[in-house]
Write a structure and sequence with these properties.
- About 45% of the residues lie in helices and about 25% in strands.
- It is α+β, with helices and mostly antiparallel strands and about 550 residues long.
- A 6-stranded antiparallel sheet has the order 8-7-6-13-12-9.
- The longest helix has about 45 residues.
């Protein structure tokens, strides 16, 4: 009896770019088509033996027995060994040279390549694919001879298995498609088991990572230590090469980079650099904050600018932004992490760790602000609002280290109000206090945020000028001198005019690196003080530069 012709719709069908362009795309729209294709494939296996020319019931049983014998076994737990053995068994069963397994992420609608998942590393995930078609599978496997089927778990499709190039060099035929269909039921069980097992194996690693980062943050007592600890821990435990904390200026919309970690080390400034229209970048959270507490941007561009142009670091290939909030839940800025030169795809687990670290940093910053407020009171001169000696030395030491790393110039000025004792004797100490307070305010209004004014004692002040040449420092002090000379200080005892003298010294941070920072500071203060003494000897109301 002649065999019946096999209905075309009964064959295992491949996705056609022309007929079903969304067949394997994400986010729910592909399920109807995938299930239809899969049911068609299964319908073929249910046909009477007489309708299957060249494929007997015995052949089908032998094929299934081989798939069961090779796949229905205990597999190794180690990812690299598991994937290698799985690939080998698929080649043995199907008689093919190449294979690829793609796993569907229902949340994002993308696929990841299980064949790449060979490392026991929770932080990175395999290749992420957003569009699957026949042609794309052919490109992935580097062959035009490709057939594929679907992986199932509890009635739902969760992946794709594709094979390419038969070992004997012939084209794939009906028998090969049947073998692939029979293979998938056993392969689905093993792959799903592996995914569950790997997740359970990664949990201790994730918890250990969070514990390490948490311990770093718990030991930090101020903002620099918190952000240094957070950035260093994240770049050590996860595949980031650097990071920044960028504070939002709500009035201008600009971002101020206050802390930065690169391969050259940790840096802080007030600010290190500006990020233009940072508020526009933060507005991207509005479209994602309902779902995640992070913003993960891949690639090198955002609009018409590169990430490197925006953040001032070279070869940025991906950016992860974590919003930072004040205690009143208003957006304060963002912790920004970078991958440079080559980007690794972050896993779901890594992103969950980052989310939890964001909460830890926010909590630590709230605690630190209380401590910093107490420290500010302890290191601030109550009358003038300038820092006192304790705060000055702490900040000065950090700036010396930064100037050494960045090889930037740094200047120090010692300033003394001329004949101030006579002012107190003539007009009284209340008038003298008013002059000191307004004089400190005048210096603050005419210097940068990064400059630091210290009330060194009585009417004597010290002014630290990071990233400043001796020429720029002299110009600033001369400008201050002229403004002070013209200013009229209004006091209860009447209007008073004063002048000041100053000595300026260039701190040679790039030389004599063997010296401790405190030694550099002491010598710099001594040289500036000698120049101040010379200015007074020369008649006061003048600026003198310390001898080279």
């Amino acid at each position: 009896m002649a065999a019946k012709q096999i209905p075309k719709t009964a064959k295992t069908k491949k996705v056609s770019d022309d007929k079903t362009p969304q067949a394997l795309t994400a986010a729910g729209t592909h399920y109807t088509e995938l299930n239809r294709l899969d049911k068609n494939a299964k319908a073929f296996l249910q046909l009477e033996p007489a309708t299957q020319p060249g494929v007997s019931v015995q052949d089908m049983l032998l094929m299934e027995l081989q798939a069961a014998r090779l796949l229905n076994v205990d597999m190794p737990d180690e990812p690299k060994q598991f994937i290698h053995l799985l690939e080998t068994r698929i080649r043995e069963i199907t008689g093919s040279r190449k294979n690829i397994i793609l796993i569907l992420d229902e949340e994002s609608g993308t696929y990841t390549c299980l064949n790449d998942d060979r490392e026991d590393n929770f932080a990175t995930s395999p290749r992420e694919l957003t569009w699957i078609s026949d042609h794309y599978l052919q490109d992935l496997l580097g062959s035009e001879q490709v057939i594929h089927s679907f992986l199932h778990h509890q009635g739902n499709i969760f992946g794709i298995i594709a094979i390419a190039d038969k070992l004997d060099g012939t084209a794939f035929n009906l028998r090969d498609e049947i073998v692939l269909e029979q293979l998938t039921q056993y392969l689905s069980v093993q792959v799903n088991h592996y995914l569950v097992l790997k997740h359970s194996m990664l949990l201790p690693t994730i918890q250990k990572t969070l514990l390490k980062i948490s311990n770093r943050l718990l030991s930090a007592v101020d903002s620099p230590a918190i952000f240094h600890g957070a950035l260093d821990a994240l770049c050590t435990e996860l595949p980031f090469t650097g990071g920044q904390f960028i504070q939002l200026d709500r009035q201008t919309g600009q971002g101020h980079v206050l802390y930065q970690l690169t391969r050259q080390g940790f840096d802080m400034g007030n600010p290190i650099r500006e990020v233009d229209q940072f508020i526009s970048l933060l507005s991207l959270f509005q479209s994602q904050v309902w779902k995640h507490t992070y913003l993960y941007l891949k690639g090198e561009m955002l609009g018409d600018k590169t990430f490197s142009e925006l953040f001032g670091l070279p070869a940025i290939t991906s950016v992860l932004m974590l919003p930072m909030y004040d205690r009143d839940q208003s957006l304060n800025g963002a912790l920004v992490l970078f991958q440079q030169h080559q980007a690794a795809n972050l896993s779901k687990e890594a992103l969950k760790v980052v989310e939890q670290v964001s909460e830890l940093v926010t909590s630590a910053c709230g605690r630190a602000k209380i401590l910093e407020k107490a420290l500010e009171i302890a290191t601030t001169d109550e009358l003038t609002g300038a820092v006192n000696r304790r705060g000055f030395y702490t900040r000065f030491e950090a700036e010396v280290d930064r100037a050494r790393r960045n090889q930037t110039p740094m200047c120090l000025a010692m300033i003394d109000i001329d004949h101030f004792k006579s002012v107190n004797d003539t007009y009284g100490h209340l008038s003298g206090d008013i002059i000191l307070k307004e004089f400190a305010a005048l210096i603050g209004q005419n210097s940068r945020k990064s400059d630091l004014l210290c009330r060194f004692g009585g009417e004597e002040f010290a002014l630290m000028l990071p990233e400043t040449t001796i020429h720029s420092a002299t110009e600033l002090l001369e400008r201050l001198r002229r403004k002070t000379e013209k200013k009229v200080f209004q006091t209860p005892a009447g209007n008073i005019k004063v002048t000041f003298s100053a000595g300026i010294n260039l701190i040679e941070t790039a030389q004599e690196l063997w010296k401790e920072p405190m030694q550099v500071i002491s010598e710099g203060l001594a040289r500036a003080d000698e120049a101040l003494y010379e200015a007074k000897q020369l008649g006061r109301n003048r600026i003198v530069i310390a001898d080279e």
